[in-house]
Amino acid sequence: MAESDCTFSVFDPPAAFGDKRRGAKLLVFPLVLVVAVAATAERQLDWWETTIFYQIYPRSFKDSDGDGIGDLNGITENLEHLKELGIGATWLSPIFKSPMYDFGYDIADFYAIQDEYGTMEDFDRLIAKANELDIKIVLDFVPNHTSNESVWFEEALRGHEKYYDYFIWEDGTVDENGVMHPPNNWVSVFRKSAWEYREEVGKYYLHQFVIGQPDLNFRNPDVVEEMKNVIRFWLGKGVAGFRVDAISHLFEVDKELYGGRFPDEPLSGGLNGDPDNYDYLNHIYTKDQDETFDMVYQWRDVFDEFAAEDGLTRVMMTEAYSSPQLTMRYFGEGDREGAQMPFNFVLISDVGGSSTAYEIKYALDKFLTFKPVDKLANWVAGNHDNNRVASRFSPELVDGINMIVLLMPGIAVTYMGEEIGMVDGYVSWEDTVDPSGCNTDDPINYWTVSRDPERTPFQWNADKNAGFSSGHKTWLPVAAGYETLNVEVQKAVERSHLKVYQQLAALRNQSAFRHGRYESVAFNSDVFAFRRWHKEANYIVVVNFRNQPYTIDLSYFENVEGHLEVVVSSIQSPKKAGDVLEANRAEILGSEALVLKV
Ligand SMILES: *[C@@H]1O[C@H](CO)[C@@H](O)[C@H](O)[C@H]1NC(C)=O
Ligand SMILES: *[C@@H]1O[C@H](CO)[C@@H](O)[C@H](O)[C@H]1NC(C)=O
Ligand SMILES: CC(=O)N[C@H]1CO[C@H](CO)[C@@H](O)[C@@H]1O
Ligand SMILES: [Ca+2]
Ligand SMILES: [Ca+2]
Questions:
Q1: Whose CA is nearest to atom 13 of ligand 1?
Q2: Which of these, 62, 82, 356, 440, could form a disulfide with 74 (CB 3.0-4.6 Å)?
Q3: Domains in the chain, please, with CATH?
Q4: Ligand 3 mean position, distance from CA 246 (Å)
Q5: 319 carries an active-site annotation
Q6: Is 245 a catalytic residue?
Q7: Which residues form the Glycosyl hydrolase family 13 catalytic domain (predicted)?
Q8: Which residue among 139, 207, 245 is best mutated to probe the pocket of ligand 3, counting the most ligand atoms within 8 A of its Cβ?
Q9: In the chain, what is the greatest distance between 2 CA atoms, to the nearest angstrom?
Q10: Model pTM?
Q11: Shortest-distance atom of ligand 2 to CA 134
Q12: How remote is the CA of residue 141 from the centroid of ligand 4, in Å?
């Protein structure tokens, strides 16, 4: 690799320190820096460090057989779409056997493919095709729970001791009237008690998510080993890694420390007076327990055994909506390695359409500031649990957000559809299927928590069902406006979100974006800009978050003066590639986003 001599190749500096930081760091950590520089000088970047990870929600990507549900063959037949975008890896939401109470996040058999998605042979063909195209396949690993219709849970209910101990059981409490209640006040993420009674065994089982998702007992060594075998099974089939679901919920407090019963969680402090609401409690006993991090490191050891055998690094991404301090612990501790990519959700959790440029900068700085100096950042603006960028920010900001996700230092992650700026679909109460929406029992306000709108079928073209399916009915309705907002149209026209995305993906190959350093500034409450540079290469990205024009003095940045050339512009911008701006008085139009070359 041409750039492998770069001193700072894997060290993205935290924002805003500019060139001064190198000196400052030398003063503080002279030894560490010298060692690090020597190590990186020889180091080539691995496949996962430079690529873009594209999340496919298989149920909604492409239906190959007309039953209205996306499937594996639909993915295999359309992997070229990823290739054309410049993407080298995809992570798939769960494809395993499931009764679908939570659309695959409730797994009945970790070793089998869900029938409606295809067969194991289809999966092998997907891997073969992906290898042909040099696209890595990452699967979803859902260790916290199984389905209540898994063989394990069914055996547990039948009193099979081995499987009984796979789950977490507790006696109910009986009040003065002899009425039985759940063991304690724990609330499920999807509302209401986290405990469900089973007559067969006369006890309650714990489910941190829906009733159909009994939590596995990770204090049982058999469970630990079983789940490692699941990892081994799929890595052995050629999978390049796992994205680990809901990791912070893995362990609950050790009840032996509390007299053998799980203690109540304290109230969060009246922010929400509804005891069925997850936010009613402060989850000190059911989230982010210390043992969770150790388990992640143990899994990484399994990954590394495979890498040692065939030379392919297996990548772990962890999903945790936690504080930055806790998020960073997933990277590893001491001499133990953990996940390469603890997901960075700031663009989802911390900012939205009404955020100022100051808040955007503050949010983007967060991960860069807290992360270990020898690890990479990652950028995630969407997934199947959160409203789409066009809906959460605005349709005008789709290109601007993609510029941030793809050009900030580190690894980019794109949820399918964000490359064409898909918007949330309207899903009526009658059509709502997401348990998060259904559990509200509220036909008026369900949509505020339903995740169906961001899961509507992928928009391929203007045909029936947006080209997603030839069937009569699709599992969720296609979003309005697909006739003009689709892949085919965006490939045909001269300027589109898709074309911008392709340009950005290609730019990631430039040394400035691959190895370059980073500084950022909010010029005012609306305009955010950052610079990436490496040796002679020097780029500026400007995003105007409001529909109001400004004249900006970009010579604020060091080594930025004279003419700046437009490299990429958001689609509503009148500026074209090759146009020239004056650094000291750059006209930035409302909602405009630009990549400029110095
Ligand atoms: C599993 O849980 C779901 C609720 O999520 C329930 O409707 C279903 O009946 C349960 N299945 C069994 C076998 O208990
Ligand atoms: C980046 O460069 C690699 C070769 O170094 C090439 O295979 C790949 O297609 C390029 N990606 C883009 C998006 O241009
Ligand atoms: C983003 C994501 O994958 N969220 C999942 C977290 O885990 C629950 C339960 O498995 C799922 O419902 C979410 O979709
Ligand atoms: Ca299908
Ligand atoms: Ca758990």
A1: 149
A2: 62
A3: 3-43+510-597 (2.60.40.1180), 145-215+253-287 (3.90.400.10), 425-493 (no CATH)
A4: 6
A5: yes
A6: yes
A7: 55-455
A8: 245
A9: 82
A10: 0.90
A11: 7
A12: 22
